[in-house]
Write a structure and sequence with these properties.
Blueprint lengths: L2 H6 L19 E10 L4 H22 L4 E9 L9 E6 L10 H10 L6 H11 E16 L6 E8 L3 H22 L4 E9 L9 E7 L2 H5 L1 H12 L5 H11 L1 E14 L4
Antiparallel strand pairs: 1-3, 1-4, 2-3, 2-8, 4-6, 5-7, 5-8, 6-7
């Protein structure tokens, strides 16, 4: 029962279970729902995310229906240049059940203490935002995990050989990410493969995510990355390695988000 499917009107029934803060093993699935806020609804959207959205998400997480959720707000680029104003991620412990019926949604809203019917909830959702896309992605490698306030750089990549691309990321970037997390310059790193819808001809199939604990950590990533590189890859030339990796999987686009909410089971 995907929270983003309910909030954003997606009609995909699929497996979603990305790890949150390293609570689960990698190689799992997650759903990403990208939305554009409707004109004049930005302030109301923020209240919705902090209110009904979070209440329902927390109730679902505490009941075990979902493993967790993340809400992301775009930082760069903004305005008409941004494909998404927000991205909502939903996580499952395993394969998800079938999509909610209106009756099931109404029961879960009542359980969460939200005084709305399914029809009212869905109508409000449509009033606030428009779904741009909803996809199913599989996590291949995970280091660390997100927290509220992090800056998240999402890198869309193209590759003609997914296996070779993933092997390269695992060999080169995983130890680098582990060292940066250890040094406090990063909160995590993820490699994903989009599973549905299937994509070709310049569309994203592989993506990486870099998590930064602050704006300063993001803007100063290069010096901190080079310090980490010298420790974990002392015998590898950075420029040569990047050139080789670029032939396997090239970054086509990067967007920067801020983590505005993370929902995990209450302690």
């Amino acid at each position: 029962m995907s929270i983003s499917r309910i909030l954003l009107g997606a009609a995909i029934a699929a497996a979603i279970s990305i790890p949150l803060a390293a609570q689960q093993a990698p190689t799992s699935y997650h759903e990403v729902a990208c939305v554009k806020v409707n004109p004049g609804k930005s302030a109301e959207m923020e209240k919705w995310i902090a209110g009904a959205d979070r209440k329902l998400a927390q109730s679902l997480v505490d009941s075990g229906a979902v493993a967790g959720t993340i809400a992301l707000r775009i930082q760069l680029p903004q305005g008409s240049a941004s494909e998404c104003d927000y991205a909502f991620l939903t996580f499952f412990k395993g394969l998800p059940p079938t999509p909610w019926t209106p009756e099931e949604l109404s029961k879960d809203l009542q359980k969460a203490g939200i005084p709305m019917t399914a029809g009212e909830f869905l109508a409000k959702r449509s009033e606030l935002a428009t779904l741009v896309y909803d996809n199913i992605t599989q996590t291949q490698t995970l280091v660390g995990g997100p927290k509220k306030g992090d800056y998240l750089a999402f890198n869309s990549m193209n590759t003609t050989d997914v296996g070779a691309c993933l092997a390269s990321e695992q060999k080169v970037w995983k130890p680098l990410a582990e060292e940066m997390v250890k040094a406090g310059n990063s909160d995590g790193w993820v490699v994903d493969v989009q599973e549905f819808p299937r994509v070709t001809n310049g569309k994203m199939t592989v993506s990486t995510v870099d998590l930064f604990p602050s704006w300063n950590a993001f803007v100063n990533v290069y010096p901190s990355m080079m310090d980490a590189w010298k420790k974990v890859h002392p015998d590898m030339d950075f420029n040569t390695t990047m050139e080789q990796m670029g032939k396997l999987c090239s970054i086509e686009n990067t967007v920067l988000y801020k983590v505005v909410d993370v929902t995990v089971p209450a302690k």
